[in-house]
Design goal:
Structural class: mainly beta
Oligomer: single chain
Largest sheet: 9 strands, antiparallel
Number of helices: 2
Radius of gyration: 18 Å
Distance between the termini: 26 Å
């Protein structure tokens, strides 16, 4: 393990795990997991004021979901979503094989790191490689978490139409606590489902705090099908999902690239603040991996 510290943040780096901590508390504000032969994911993500956790791992309603993660149904007929925990077991499910995490880059209140993962079919064929280039910024009252997400095909690939898939956020929702969702067009949870929008935000009560906290996912305007339609499910999981529109393809050697920002905040959803944040994000260059 290596450990380094500059200013407010410091990082604990292991082969299969990375923790970002605030130096004044020593508590993780974000943890990246990349266990050997397992799906990479981020959990927990803490609230910016240090009160409460904004992600859920293996919730009671979807055991294969892990905080903030990626996955897809129907990649040349292979499922990269349920991890063998669904009705078909591992018969039609692919597997994830992350490479050891390289040393992160820490500059003041910014941390960046790469997660590279091979996606293999049930016959153990490596059909594509995924690259997640994360960048975390602590701005005090909020966090920014940026992701350029790249998929590189090792054979001709058809990604099948589905009502969800891609980058997915699972927060600690329960029927007893409620939640609020809002998209960039002013639609609530049910109305936002399957619709195109520039961002979607969710805010909910959390254990350990008296008010709400939330996360917005913002989409970059240079993405392939911007504005992308969204999954906004009944448990307040959110996902910009290109696959909602229909099948799409990559030829062998080709890559796809999408870029997103998570804006992590305290309190209820303030659409004007999130809209301003989207404008800032939209004017940045979509970084190429």
């Amino acid at each position: 393990m290596s450990e380094s510290a500059i200013n407010k943040l410091f990082v604990r780096h292991e082969t299969n795990r990375l923790q970002i901590l605030r130096s004044e508390t020593g508590s993780p504000v974000l943890v990246q997991h990349a266990a050997k032969d397992g799906r990479p994911y981020i959990h927990p993500i803490g609230a910016p004021d240090g009160k409460g956790c904004l992600t859920d791992n293996q919730p009671w309603h979807h055991l294969w979901q892990h905080g903030l993660y990626t996955g897809l149904h129907g990649v040349n007929g292979v499922d990269f979503w349920e991890e063998g925990l669904g009705g078909n077991g591992l018969a039609h499910d692919g597997t994830f094989h992350p490479k050891p995490l390289t040393t992160p880059i820490l500059k003041g209140n910014n941390v960046s790191w790469m997660v590279e993962t091979d996606w293999c079919s049930s016959s153990k064929e490596n059909i594509l490689t995924e690259y997640q280039k994360w960048s975390f910024e602590d701005i005090g009252t909020a966090f920014r978490l940026d992701l350029p997400w790249k998929l590189k095909a090792h054979c001709d690939i058809c990604f099948e139409q589905c009502s969800y898939g891609g980058l997915f956020l699972r927060m600690p929702w329960h029927p007893s606590i409620g939640a609020t969702a809002l998209d960039s067009e002013g639609r609530g949870r049910a109305e936002a489902e399957g619709k195109r929008s520039r961002w979607v935000a969710v805010s909910m009560p959390l254990c350990g705090r008296e008010d709400n906290a939330g996360i917005a996912i913002l989409e970059h305007p240079q993405n392939p099908v911007f504005p992308t339609p969204w999954r906004v499910d009944g448990n307040y999981g959110i996902s910009p999902s290109r696959c909602i529109l229909g099948d799409w393809k990559l030829e062998k050697g080709e890559s796809s690239l999408e870029a997103y920002r998570l804006f992590i905040f305290c309190g209820v959803i303030d659409s004007s603040i999130i809209e301003d944040e989207w404008k800032i994000f939209s004017q940045t260059e979509r970084r190429i991996l």
